[in-house]
Task: inverse folding
């Protein structure tokens, strides 16, 4: 039963490949547009996430009050947010970036804050005794100590950023892989839908690989668990 | 060049009193050893001087200035080395200096060599033996710019000879720079060999039970260990400590 | 796409920018607009039109709020919107008659509303659906109570009939044509065949009341151009299909051509002019909705639409 | 401009409150249905996430191969997955739970795996010397050590579970707050849309609070950073 | 009751050879002390016995059975206490036992009392002083069921008196149960007081340079420290160690 799926619902890989090769000219610009959106959104989302988590970390009293709001921000359905964003910011790139930012920043905040919280008490103790200022404590101890957690958050965010970009295009866009996919879907071109998915996945894997590469470089020299 | 005065320091953790009315002075350029049973409160005294928490009562002053609860006034080796696992050895030893000013890698390099750690500059802490890590923490304290040094059992993981070299080196540095040193150790000979004065802590809660001034002339060398005077002092300190002779609880 | 305040300058030499928001992805309902764009009718009218897809939430709110000047909607939505005091106005009917109906594969043997009994209907959960089905079935003495209604969410027609669904509500001009192309034989029960009151306008072109008050000229120019576009599509279905395909290359060519072929004659049908709307149609449907408890208040039908922006009949 | 928003687009809080109180009977069952879905989906998602991460952790060779697939699983747009799920599983509750599971399990996997990776080498060393079996190592050291990370993942997952349930209802459901919201949206009852959002948020906060409470209990006695 | 034989053990880290051809035997019920410069490879020997990694060459056998690379055959105190921060003290001390069989909380309780930790059963490690943590790690090793015990500087953070009590207690336990003990220390007196035999490690790379059998009768008590024979041995060991007398690098 699982394999009795009509071709128009789940096209054969060869069909998908064929369409991917032949259709390149027609979707290359969509791809570019979505990657741009995803990269910009990811960078902004991560920056916002880091700034927010650092601020909350440095202002523990604010943290209590703001944390629930962050959770809430993840629960505003896009179909509600979409008209508001469009009305405030039009059909341009800004509302889309807001959506991606909203998707990316939350995993960063949760992971980073948890990273800060787990800072080794012994090292913290040494730094305090040595008279480290709050900013030194932060730069020399808390940040490097939280780095693995931050990367954990970055990985989740990177994974979501491409999908976030695709979703943001449903806000109303004239190009982008999300638009391409909706058009394909509504004109029943399932092969194209799958081409779109394949590229979304490739984009996402590239993003993820970049983060892993960065992690390798930045955490170089840290002791692996088997050494 | 700095003088530390601790005045009637009292401290409790939860409902348990640890320090009661502890007062002492470390004069300018003086080398003072602190002895006492395990768990009596020696490290706690260091943490209080370092401003990690405030004493329940009492004050510390450095050069007449009240430093109670203030951090960064002393340089310090913690009882466990507390090295930063993501920093190489050379990056670890400059950390104390880095916090106060620009670190001097040249001097750091020389100091590491003197501590027998040549060739380990770019190793990570986990690649070092226990004693080597302790030496790194010691070098880190020596490279810190403060004039008042608190050392919490800095040589406990070293063999006799490495320990002797480190002691001799510490004495040289201390004499050259006339820093003031407060030094925790469980080794009576070490305390006698290094210190001008010797404080003995009682237990439960801790107070300063004895404050001995040592008469040995400086510079000191290993022959001191063999003098009759040294042996007498050793016995005296031993007895003083023995009055605490029950396992603390 | 902000024009309200830039009108004065643009009237001299630069073109006036307006935004047109579709109701869904581009399809043959929108051909006239793309033709007007391609053939330069908008340009001639001094307009610079941006055609935008609506995204998740549809065009209505964007148009009503003035963020876009024009949009595509349907009579049913405009009716509901207006009874909620949303200032949306229909200015042209794209198709004269309702081309939607209940479709089912022939092997389900659904040839009249009475056959719905015991079958499964796949819908999206709106109260209007059961009301429509019921009014069809009543004519044959049956009741919607005997229909099993499931919500199929965003699932498309072809997927749904593969599974538990027996019949669904589709636009013949798109899904029905696709079924033809796939050689799936459908039984189609059009709403218009069973009830006059259900022959409402879908889709329609909308604008908001502020536009009507402040920029009637723009509307006139826009509808004039669009009207020419649809006239072109009526006269030249093949060329019109080409224009749509060229404007939106990601659409399926075959489907667009077949759909255009089917739809072109239906834009104007027997009406005296493309786009005209009849107050009766608006009244009938609103009354039907009201009597089926689908509206909280009655509609002021005359305020919901206007023919005043259609070009004078030559 | 920001505040010139008509009431039908962003209703006044009083209107929302009014509708929330008066409409209770009409949406209470929707609410219940969605909460049920979210809870079941969350529990299954978390279980799957834990099982997957534990398996990957214990089978490091499989890990390399499977990890990219996990990332990909987060990038299958629901609009593509939906028809397949419907064909395979119909319009029942199963495909919806699959969607929520898919949303919830990923943050758990990333966070848990990163937690395992950071196990203290000294403690690991001790356990090995003491002859701990793989399972003991796991139960007595790796799990307790990874707990803070796992909770970090749980927090993210809990936040997403409610939204995941709402999205899953677009697959076709006869009740649920997602259905209620879509209908409200399409009949321009913005006040109801906002009532739905408010309840989605409340649900989500409750979930989050439960996780935080659980974390407090399970990590009790662990040293806080200021002690 | 177990006999450990180490045969020509060789081990390098990266390109640096640490141990070269190290062979020794610890007989059934024997108490052997291991001395050597800081960083020479003592802890490394323990890790190899414990099966943490395999020697590059050579084998270990316990009671004639090859245990090279096998874990869980010995009970062990690491050089740093390695307590589990989320376990209370009593939960920590039973950990070694827990891994092998059902832990006995009754005995654990008694042992903690003997180690002067009464009242700390439900404390967490961070609430203990350095020396107290070391005692916890020691009790944990004693409560482990294996008959071969490796102790890596277990008393280095204890004051003289607590240390003496612990030593005495260790001797008692050892005599009662006739476990075999391999003991790393930097304290010559401690080694002489406790051990039957004394192995001295050279440096760079490490080999067994001396293997002394000590003639002191058992049971031993504090008076031993004052005997002439003891002092002579002390000098002898001191000189043996002094041959390594350069700071290792
Ligand atoms: N954070 C804490 N919470 C509760 N009790 C504590 C804390 N830190 C230390 N103590 C208690 O304070 C007492 C003194 O500890 P301290 O570390 O100062 O001892 P010490 O003299 O340095 O001992 P050692 O020689 O073993 O290092 C101990 O009984 C210890 O249990
Ligand atoms: N994981 C490692 N990677 C690289 N080198 C290591 C590693 N572990 C130990 N070494 C090196 O092996 C040598 C011996 O270390 P070991 O810990 O056995 O010394 P030790 O005799 O126990 O010294 P101490 O008395 O100071 O504890 C040291 O030079 C150390 O740098
Ligand atoms: Mg201490
Ligand atoms: Mg060692």
Result:
């Amino acid at each position: 039963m699982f394999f009795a799926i009509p071709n128009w619902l789940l096209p054969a890989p060869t069909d998908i490949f064929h369409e991917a090769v032949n259709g390149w000219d027609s979707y290359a610009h969509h791809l570019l547009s979505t990657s741009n959106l995803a990269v910009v959104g990811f960078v902004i989302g991560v920056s916002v996430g880091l700034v927010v988590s650092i601020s909350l970390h440095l202002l523990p009293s604010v943290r209590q009050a703001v944390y629930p709001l962050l959770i809430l921000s993840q629960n505003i359905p896009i179909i509600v947010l979409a008209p508001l964003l469009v009305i405030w910011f039009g059909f341009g790139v800004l509302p889309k970036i807001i959506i991606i930012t909203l998707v990316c920043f939350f995993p960063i905040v949760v992971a980073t804050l948890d990273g800060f919280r787990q800072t080794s008490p012994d090292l913290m103790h040494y730094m305090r005794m040595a008279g480290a200022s709050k900013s030194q404590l932060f730069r020399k101890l808390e940040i490097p100590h939280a780095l693995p957690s931050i990367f954990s958050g970055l990985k989740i965010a990177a994974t979501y950023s491409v999908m976030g970009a695709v979703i943001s295009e449903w806000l109303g866009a004239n190009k982008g892989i999300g638009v391409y996919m909706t058009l394909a879907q509504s004109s029943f071109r399932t092969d194209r839908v799958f081409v779109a998915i394949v590229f979304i996945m490739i984009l996402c894997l590239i993003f993820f690989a970049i983060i892993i590469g960065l992690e390798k470089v930045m955490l170089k020299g840290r002791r692996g668990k088997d050494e | 060049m700095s003088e530390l005065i601790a005045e009637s320091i009292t401290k409790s953790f939860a409902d348990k009193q640890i320090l009661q009315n502890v007062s002492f002075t470390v004069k300018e350029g003086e080398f003072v050893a602190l002895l006492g049973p395990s768990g009596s409160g020696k490290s706690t005294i260091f943490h209080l001087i370092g401003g990690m928490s405030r004493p329940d009562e009492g004050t510390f002053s450095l050069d007449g200035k009240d430093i109670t609860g203030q951090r960064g006034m002393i340089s310090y080796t913690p009882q466990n080395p507390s090295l930063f696992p993501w920093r190489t050895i050379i990056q670890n030893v400059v950390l104390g200096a880095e916090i106060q000013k620009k670190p001097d890698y040249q001097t750091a390099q020389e100091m590491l060599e003197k501590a027998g750690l040549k060739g380990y500059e770019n190793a990570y802490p986990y690649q070092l033996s226990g004693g080597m890590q302790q030496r790194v923490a010691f070098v880190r304290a020596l490279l810190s710019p403060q004039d008042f040094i608190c050392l919490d059992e800095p040589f406990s993981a070293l063999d006799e000879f490495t320990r002797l070299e480190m002691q001799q080196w510490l004495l040289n540095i201390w004499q050259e720079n006339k820093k003031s040193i407060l030094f925790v150790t469980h080794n009576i000979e070490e305390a006698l060999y290094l210190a001008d004065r010797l404080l003995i802590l009682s237990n439960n809660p801790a107070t300063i039970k004895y404050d001995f001034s040592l008469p040995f002339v400086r510079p000191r060398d290993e022959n001191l260990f063999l003098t009759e005077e040294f042996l007498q002092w050793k016995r005296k300190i031993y007895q003083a400590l023995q009055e605490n002779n029950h396992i603390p609880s | 796409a902000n024009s309200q305040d830039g009108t004065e300058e643009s009237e001299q030499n630069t073109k006036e920018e307006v935004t047109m928001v579709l109701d869904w992805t581009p399809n043959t309902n929108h051909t006239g607009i793309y033709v007007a764009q391609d053939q330069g009718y908008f340009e001639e009218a001094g307009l610079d039109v941006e055609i935008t897809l609506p995204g998740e939430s549809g065009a209505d709110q964007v148009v009503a709020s003035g963020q876009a000047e024009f949009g595509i909607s349907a009579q049913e939505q405009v009716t509901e919107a207006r009874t909620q005091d949303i200032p949306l106005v229909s200015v042209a009917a794209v198709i004269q008659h309702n081309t939607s109906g209940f479709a089912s594969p022939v092997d389900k043997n659904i040839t009249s509303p009475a056959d719905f009994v015991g079958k499964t209907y796949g819908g999206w959960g709106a109260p209007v659906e059961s009301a429509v089905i019921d009014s069809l079935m009543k004519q044959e003495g049956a009741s919607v109570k005997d229909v099993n209604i499931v919500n199929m969410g965003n699932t498309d027609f072809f997927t749904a009939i593969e599974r538990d669904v027996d019949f669904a509500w589709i636009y013949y001009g798109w899904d029905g044509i696709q079924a033809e192309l796939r050689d799936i034989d459908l039984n189609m029960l059009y709403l218009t065949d069973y009830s006059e009151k259900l022959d409402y306008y879908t889709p329609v072109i909308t604008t908001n009341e502020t536009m009507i008050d402040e920029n009637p000229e723009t509307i006139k120019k826009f509808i004039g151009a669009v009207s020419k576009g649809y006239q072109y599509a009526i006269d030249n279905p093949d060329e019109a299909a080409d224009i749509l395909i060229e404007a939106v290359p990601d659409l399926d060519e075959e489907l667009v051509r077949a759909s255009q072929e089917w739809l072109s004659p239906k834009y104007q049908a027997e009406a005296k002019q493309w786009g005209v709307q009849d107050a009766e149609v608006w009244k009938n449907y609103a009354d039907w909705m009201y009597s089926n408890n689908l509206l909280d208040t009655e509609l002021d039908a005359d305020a919901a639409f206007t023919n005043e922006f259609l070009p004078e009949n030559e």
